[in-house]
Structure formats: C-alpha cells, structure tokens
Amino acid sequence: MTATVGLLEYCDPRDWSVHHFGLPAERWNALAGKVFWVTGAGTGFGAAIATILAVAGGRPVLTGRRREKLEETREAMRGLGVDPASVTVLSCDVRDEVQVAGAADEIANRFGILSGLVVCAALPQSRSTPWPLADLRRENWQSLLDSNLTAPWLTARAALPLMLGTGQARVLLLTSEAGWAGTPGFGPYNVSKAALNSLGASLAAETAARHPAADVQINVLNPGEARSEMNQGSTVSPYTAVAATLALLSHPPGGPNGRFFARDGRHLEFAYSKAWEKSLLP
Ligand SMILES: NC(=O)c1ccc[n+]([C@@H]2O[C@H](COP(=O)([O-])OP(=O)(O)OC[C@H]3O[C@@H](n4cnc5c(N)ncnc54)[C@H](OP(=O)(O)O)[C@@H]3O)[C@@H](O)[C@H]2O)c1
Fold first, then answer.
1. Which domains does the chain show, CATH number per domain?
2. Substitution site in 99, 221, 231 for ligand 1 pocket (most atoms within 8 Å of beta carbon)
3. β-strands 59-64, 88-91: how paired?
4. What is this structure's pTM?
5. 142 close to ligand 1 (CB < 6 Angstrom)
6. Is the CB of 149 inside a 6 Å radius of any atom of ligand 1?
7. Cα 39 from Cα 225, distance rounded (Å)
8. Most distant CA atoms of the chain, gap in Å
C-alpha cells in the first residue's frame, strides 16, 4: 500500500458536516478539544487548515506576523459555525527565537498542553532574477532559508516539549514539490524545501529515539498547488490540503513518523525514507 484512498481533496468546506473530508467519525471526533498550533494561519493553506480544525471542535492557535490577517481568518470562521472564542490569535515572527519561545509560553500558560503543530509559514522564491543561484543577493538567500528552514526548526523545537508532556506529538511540515525538484529559477526555494524535508525526517528519528515510550508522529506533507498569497495565479482552493492534514493529525498511535505524503493520498519517498506502507485511514 503506497496510497490512502478516501481522502476528499475536492469538497466544499461549507458541507463539512456531510463529508468530514473523508475522515471516519472516530477520527473526526478525535480532533475535538485538541490544541493545535498552526503557523502561517492568516492566509492560504494555514488559514484553511486552522479553520477546519476549529470546525471539528479543536482549539487552534493561529500565528503569523500580521495580526489583522489572523483576525480575518478567525472572523471568517463564523461562516462555518465556529465560535471565535475557541480560536487563539498570536502574532509571532517565526524567524525570531524570542518570539517563538514567547508564543510557546503563551500556549503553555493558556492550555498547559499542545496536541499538534502544523508549519505552514514560508516565503516563495523571489522572482527578481531568472537565475537566482547565480545572481541572488546573499540577504535574499538568507531570508528564504531563515523563513523556510530555520523557522520550522525553531517552532518545532519550542513546541515539542509541550506535546511530549502529553506522551504524543503530531507535527506536520508543509513542503512542496520543489523539495524533490531542481527547476531553473527556483533554486534557493528548491534547496529550502529539500532541507525542510530532511529536517522532518531527522527530527522524527531523533525525537522517536529520545522518547521511545512516546507516540511520535512527525511527518511532511506536499500540499500541492493552490491559490494563496504566494501563488495568486492558481484557481485551486487551499482547502484541498485539509483532508490529508486531518488524517495525519488525527492518526492513532502506531502511525507514520518521518514519512512523506501528498494531499491526494499518495505516500512519497524522500532520500532513504520509504513510502509509508499502510493506509492513513482505517
Ligand atoms: N500555494 C501553493 O501553490 C503551494 C505549493 C506548494 C507548497 N506550498 C507551501 O504551502 C505552505 C503555505 O503557503 P501558502 O501557499 O498558503 O502561502 P501564503 O498564503 O503566502 O502563506 C504563507 C504564510 O506564512 C506567513 N509567514 C511568512 N513568513 C513568516 C514569518 N517570518 N513569521 C510568521 N509567519 C510568516 C505569512 O503571513 P505573514 O506575512 O502575516 O507573517 C503567510 O500567512 C508553504 O510552506 C508553501 O511553501 C504552497
């Protein structure tokens, strides 16, 4: 088995109570009451994922730099029946170690625990030159790697102790096809996503080795193309990545760790990591 069948990639989020994105009732219900930290939650995939976690009765914590975007996401959730009081908004620049630690402290103070982390915050490739590996300025390279690699590491490092306090950890890093590609014009972005893939595999292995009794599931999702701030040319809804995200966040013990998935249910390989061999759904 190298795929999960039954994830509803294309469905109307307004009909969530009918389809639950393809999740069986016990998996959908498992999300209720859980605290999930979603970075980059003001727009795009992060906003869609945070919204549906709230719809499922979870208590998402939305972070991003622009508080007004986070508030917009929270306000829009009313349209799907969410009480905004169940949603926490914290502005946080995830490149800044002090701000990330501050957000983790705030989550610890408010909730005492954390059930999962979904890392969506990232920057796209700057299109200032078609040959970025030859011509890009050093500060642009640094900014991309700070945002797409160092920030996910800082966030996961701060979040893991809160999750492991519950004996389990569910972490999802949003990568891109770019992490497997060498497309001209996107070199630094490709490098940042390949390194993010490696971070996911290594963090999963290290955390499981250090905490052998804990239920550690740290995985990487390629969300595919969708309309967002960084991809305004797409007509695809960012809700397309919700089903795969929920299947991974709601997985019972014994699930994948250090594995790679696509939003349509394909199980991927990366470097020495083989495709997960069981379905993500029962
Ligand atoms: N859309 C696509 O077609 C596509 C395809 C493949 C992969 N992806 C991946 O999907 C993920 C989500 O992207 P998206 O498409 O949803 O793009 P998006 O709408 O541009 O979302 C990125 C979010 O990251 C936040 N962010 C960026 N830098 C930050 C920082 N330093 N601190 C805190 N937040 C920061 C931004 O909010 P603030 O500016 O307010 O901080 C923004 O809300 C990314 O990892 C992206 O690489 C997207």
1. 13-268 (3.40.50.720)
2. 231
3. parallel
4. 0.98
5. no
6. no
7. 18
8. 52
Q: Is 262 helix (H, G, I), strand (E, B) or coil?
A: strand
Phi first, then psi: what are they for 38, rounded to 5°? -115, 115
- Cβ contact 95:122 at 8 Å: no
DSSP classification of residue 128: S
Q: Is 218 exposed, middle or buried (0-12, 13-18, 19+ CB in 10 A)?
A: buried
Compute the average pLDDT of residues 90-102: 98
CB 176 less than 6 A from any atom of ligand 1: yes
Query: How many CB atoms sit inside 10 A of residue 61's CB?
Result: 28
- Which atom in ligand 1 lies closest to the alpha carbon of residue 94? 32
- Does 174 sit in the ligand 1 pocket, CB within 6 Å? yes
Q: How many CB atoms lie within 10 A of CB 104?
A: 24
Q: Name residue 188's amino acid.
A: P
pLDDT of residue 1 exceeding 80, the answer is no
Q: What is the mean pLDDT of residues 117-138?
A: 96
**pLDDT, average across residues 203-214:** 98
266 Cβ contact list (under 8 Å, min separation 6): 2, 3
Q: Which two tokens stand for residue 160?
A: 């893991």
- Cα of 102 vs its chain's centroid, Å: 20
For tokens 């995830």, the residue is 94
Give ∠ CA 128-132-133 in degrees, rounded to 5: 165
Kindly state the percentage of the chain with pLDDT values over 90: 98
Q: Kindly report, residue by residue over 53-90, the tens digit of the pLDDT.
A: 999 999 999 999 999 999 999 999 999 999 999 999 99
Which ligand 1 atom lies nearest to the CA of residue 66? 40
Atom of ligand 1 nearest to the CA of 151: 31
